Amino acid sequence: KIGAVDYSAYLNTLVWLPIQRTDKWQVNIPKLSLGETTLCSGICPLLFDTSIEIIIGPRSQVSQIYEAVGAREIPGVTIRSVDCSKMRHSRIWFSWLPNRPP
Q: In the chain, pLDDT over 90 holds for what percent of residues?
């Protein structure tokens, strides 16, 4: 069934968010944290795109994510790579609801 949700696949409650920009599947979340470091709070735009595997955002915040997961720079290009078998233990938290920790 297209668009169906398998609620048994979720550990917590599934949260529905309003789309802010339909051309980019953008939602706004109240907080984005990396471990104990808050990268964004207030209104944090977040784009969902399952067809690409890149991180786009403010350089300082993206660099913190790359560092935390052990991404390595690929010479000659502006992208980085992560060997998932060697990925550092890290947690990136997306807080969907205000005043509620992930």
A: 0
What are the angstrom distances between the C-alpha of 52 and each of 6, 20, 48, 49, 72?
23, 20, 10, 6, 18
In whole angstroms, what is the distance from residue 7 CA to residue 71 CA? 32
Residue reference for tokens 């990925």: 87
Helices (H), 1-102: 59-69
Query: pTM for the whole thing?
Result: 0.59
Query: Does the pLDDT value for residue 97 go beyond 80?
Result: no
Q: Hey, what amino acid is at 13?
A: T
Dmax (CA) for the chain in angstroms is 44
Q: What are the strands of the beta sheet with 26-34, ordered from one edge?
A: 37-47, 26-34, 92-95
